[in-house]
Amino acid sequence: MRSLLLLLGIILSFPAAAACPRIVSQSPYITHQLEWLGLADCIVGASRYERRVRVPDTGGVMDPDAQAIAAVQPDLVITSTWTKPDVLAAVTPPSARAMRLASFQRMDQIEENLREIGAAARLDVAQARAAAFAYLWRKKAAAVGARGERVLLLSSCTGQPYSFGRNTWLGELFEAAGFRLAETNEGVRHLARDATAEDIERRVTELRPDLVVIFTRQIAESCAAVPWPANARLMALDGEKFLHPAPVLLEGLDELAKTYGDLYR
């Protein structure tokens, strides 16, 4: 095991492509994936949602800015499948390659994203880095050691929160960690923007989870208005480590293992 971890460390220390392609990252989760591949310095433009890199704003996922994208002269424009194909084609310069990545239904989509981006960037170690992520997330998930608790995964308690069911990367991640999903919907269920506390209370009462996970650091403030049933435990986790389908989930799994251990052991 120690030799395998050493090998993973060596793989992740390998440099990125010798000729760095100019990349537009049209979603923060793509930026996280680029960082895992060692390609963060290749980003020349990013969406308006980006906080991790200081580069020109290239618009949103649904409304990318063609003029801003053309100005940074990209080789690769990478976005999610939420960007319509005709919209992406219209904003991609003729000399650039456009990529739409499916990322939100399964963990192996993240692995495939890493391989696809690496191949497009001609990154020699892309396959190895994708394999390292595949190994590490499964190993860390197994180490959480949950015992079949029924868990309801909520993005937040305010705004328009949503819950995660099967056919989501977080649903698969928590099942791999030993939990059972309380949410009965496939995919993401959006809860009410108005009367949010009442809608959350209704869902918790109907689903009867053993554990409600809120992906926020301010659980006391954001969830104070919700009248939680006495039998439902609450766990707060850092959304920045979970709400991006990207290798940053490895940090989230470390936090989950510690928080779960503190709560149940």
3D structure, described in words:
- The chain has 265 residues and is α/β, with parallel strands linked by helices.
- The chain folds into two domains: 139 residues, Nitrogenase molybdenum iron protein domain (Rossmann fold, 3-Layer(aba) Sandwich), CATH 3.40.50; 120 residues, Rossmann fold, CATH 3.40.50.
- The chain contains ten helices and ten strands.
- The strands form two sheets. Strands 5, 6, 7, 8, 9 and 10 form a six-stranded mixed beta sheet that branches. A four-stranded parallel beta sheet has the order 2-1-3-4, sandwiched between helices.
- β1, α2 and β2 form a beta-alpha-beta unit.
- The relative contact order is 0.12.
- The mean pLDDT is 90.
**Main sheet?**
6 strands, mixed
Strand content: 5-15%
Architecture of the largest domain, according to CATH?
Answer: 3-Layer(aba) Sandwich
What does the average pLDDT come to?
A: 90
For the record, what is the CATH homologous superfamily label of the largest domain? Nitrogenase molybdenum iron protein domain
Counting DSSP H or I runs of 4 or more residues, the number of helices is: 10
- Taking pLDDT < 50 over at least 5 consecutive residues as the criterion, the unreliable ranges are none
Q: Which structural class should the secondary elements be placed in?
A: alpha/beta
CATH class of the largest domain: Alpha Beta
Give a count of the beta strands, DSSP E runs of length 2 or more.
Answer: 10
Instruction: Please estimate the helix content.
Output: 40-55%
**Order of helix and strand elements from N to C terminus:** HEHEHEHEHHEEHEEHEHEH
State the end-to-end distance.
26 Å
Which topology of the largest domain does CATH recognise?
Answer: Rossmann fold
Radius of gyration: 20 Å
Number of self-contained structural domains: 2
| Dominant shape | globular
